[in-house]
Amino acid sequence: MERPGPSEVTGSDAAGPDPQLAATMGFTGFGKKARTFDLEAMFEQTRRTAVERSRKTLEAREKEEEMNREKELRRQNEDIEPTSSGSHVVRDCSKSSSRDTSSSESEESSGSSDDELIGPPLPLKMMKEPSNPIEEDILGPLPPPLYEEVEEDDDDDGDSEEEENPVQKIPDSHEITLKHGTKTVSALGLDPSGARLVTGGYDYDVKFWDFAGMDASFKAFRSLQPCECHQIKSLQYSNTGDMILVVSGSSQAKVIDRDGFEVMECIKGDQYIVDMANTKGHTAMLHTGSWHPKIKGEFMTCSNDATVRTWEVENPRKQRSVFKPRTMQGKKVIPTTCTYSRDGNLIAAACQNGSIQIWDRNLTVHPKFHYKQAHDPGTDTSCVAFSYDGNVLASRGGDDTLKLWDIRQFNKPLFSASGLPTLFPMTDCCFSPDDKLIVTGTSVQRGCGSGKLVFFERRTFQRVYEIDITDASVVRCLWHPKLNQIMVGTGNGLAKVYYDPNKSQRGAKLCVVKTQRKAKQAETLTQDYIITPHALPMFREPRQRSTRKQLEKDRLDPLKSHKPEPPVAGPGRGGRVGTHGGTLSSYIVKNIALDKTDDSNPREAILRHAKAAEDNPYWVSPAYSKTQPKTMFAQVESDDEEAKNEPEWKKRKI
Q1: Which pairs count as long-range contacts for 453-459, CB under 8 Å and 24+ apart, including other chains?
Q2: Compositional bias (Basic and acidic residues) at which positions (predicted)?
């Protein structure tokens, strides 16, 4: 049959590939329809295969269980009643057959539900009695049915034991020590993820510690002085972890980023204005600061100018709002510490007159709660902290007490504990992550014992546990909820981290397992190398190599790696000149300066060399040998005549 030409293509051939177009494009497969896949059919086939495998696995498990039960029953019957063993076997077989039939019926009846299962088979208990219809759509393996109840019972027992004794949750089995300096560690800050720790002290330094990057040497990766010659009083990471609030002894707080670079600095107010609400910033020394727990970029500071101010990072030229603590008579009072509530709606401040005042964040005029004698007047309350549920407030007073308050009934303290000495204006307290314990530190005089970390149970306020930290005061303490690790700052320049390998997460566990790295030689390139990949071979520079391999070769060379010999002490030995006389200065001192000859008569000293100069003229006579006239000697006279004719001044002795 003759093939039609391009102009004679029929309607049936129009749908196929065009031969002229294929010849033009250069390949014959042009114009073919791509293969299509039915994804729903593929998924359906995969689901059916998974269900079939699950059924087979389930049947095999049931048969194995029945076989094991039959064997156990046979052994028991043979031991107890050997004569009636056959009847028991028959009964067991009948039971197994009935179970097989019932299971097959249940499988047939529940075929529609089994069709929806994907993955390994479900346990028997869940196959027979599904308590939740959502469980039928669960993907992935499930726990074995035999140990399910046992594990639940063990968990319940463990929970009850932990509820009865919260001390078991304290992670204090292991510790690491970070050397900040020699002076008091007065500030601690840990980012929300628990990856970095920042410490500040009386030595003006702020040091950054990275748990993931540290090794067993426990060295800080960065140290700086953001506030020059002012002591660091408070450090805190923001709720996003990208900024750090630095409060020092100056009147201006600073915000730095995670790497220590300055983000903003609060403006200083006008100290000659009477009403502190009319100035743009603080005018006196700061005490502490705190980030807002919910709003990004908002923080708060309190100062000796008797104000509590809130700020925004985007607007460093003026504060956002001003809170002015007052006594019951309306006089100014200095706030020593301040904090936000957990939801950020309340602002709490403790003052030098012993009062605790709490404001609504949006109402700056009158405090919402005011307790005038929370602690002794004239003492600096060093810390106020809200619990995680937001209903309880803990205050650490300068009167050596720790008190617990319910803000819903803010008329008297719930509990009070005394005998907790403090010597620092920033001794703080904090709640455990489960809100069942309260932690604070104690101070000691130098050489008069050791500082302790004291734990109180929140429900009964009993002193349930203590940790001896070091032979100095415990100033700062921080219990991170994610890491479940306790950070402590001490009065002798140490920052300690307490953790438990089983109860804690990451943090100090990351750097403890790393061995201390050896110092590597610096790898440098000898000269700048210009990379020109498309240059001609004759213009292409040879590839520059690192100096590390050359240094390793030189290290193996005995001549190049020869250690310089130390200077010789005493007399010389081994062909080496000793220290005495080895240099020009020592030679001069030895041979000239120490010459004790008496040159008091210069004439005799000069005439001492007269005979040698006459016998061997060297300096003056050879210079005039050609131009010197011949000497004309006078007639020689006798010695007596010469003595008579000699002038009077020659007769005198010089």
Answers
A1: 453/477, 453/486, 453/488, 454/420, 455/167, 455/170, 456/402, 456/415, 456/417, 457/166, 458/387, 458/392, 458/404, 458/431
A2: 47-78, 89-98, 540-565, 644-654
Q: CA–CA separation, 382 vs 132, rounded Å? A: 53
- Name the CATH topology of 167-513: Methylamine Dehydrogenase; Chain H (2.130.10)
Most confident of 68-82, 94-108, 609-623: 609-623
Taking the C-alpha atoms of residue 184 and residue 523, their distance in angstroms, rounded to an integer, is: 38
Instruction: Please state, in angstroms and rounded to a whole number, the distance separating the CA atoms of residues 602 and 85.
Output: 143
Q: What is the pLDDT of residues 132-153, one digit of tens each?
A: 444 444 444 444 444 444 444 5
152-180 pLDDT, tens digit per residue, is 455 555 554 445 688 888 998 999 999 99
- Helix boundaries (H) for 287-413: none
Query: For residue 83, what pLDDT is reported?
Result: 43
What letter would DSSP give residue 115? T
User: Which of 513, 518, 478, 516 lies closest to 498 in space, CA to CA?
Assistant: 478
Pick the closest to residue 136 from 40, 44, 54 (CA basis): 54
- What is the distance between the alpha carbons of residues 401 and 113, in angstroms, rounded to a whole number? 65
Residue in the block written with tokens 């050879």 = 622
Residue spans of the domains in the chain: they are: 167-513
Distance (Å, whole) CA 485 – CA 385: 18
DSSP conformation letters of 523-589: P--SS-----TTS-TTTPPPPP--SHHHHHHHHH-TTTTPPPPPPPPSS--TT---STTSSHHHHHI
Rounded Cα gap, residues 399 and 421, in angstroms: 8
DSSP string over 165-185 = -GGGG---SEEEEEE--SS-E
Give me the pLDDT at residue 644, please: 58
CA dist., res. 206 & res. 584, Å (int): 51
The mean predicted confidence, pLDDT, of the chain is: 78
Task: Please give the Cα distance from 549 to 562 (Å, whole number).
Answer: 18
CA dist 343 and 360 (Å) reads: 12
Residue 315: phi and psi, rounded to 5, are -130, 80
Q: How far from chain centre, in Å, is Cα 644? A: 108
* CA gap 583, 591 in Å, rounded: 12
Q: What is the number of other CB atoms lying within 10 angstroms of the CB of residue 240?
A: 11
Compute and round to an integer the Cα radius of gyration of the chain.
47
β-bridge mates for residue 545, sequence order: none
Report the distance separating Cα 12 and Cα 622, nearest Å: 132
Contacts of 418 (CB under 8 A, 6+ apart): 400, 401
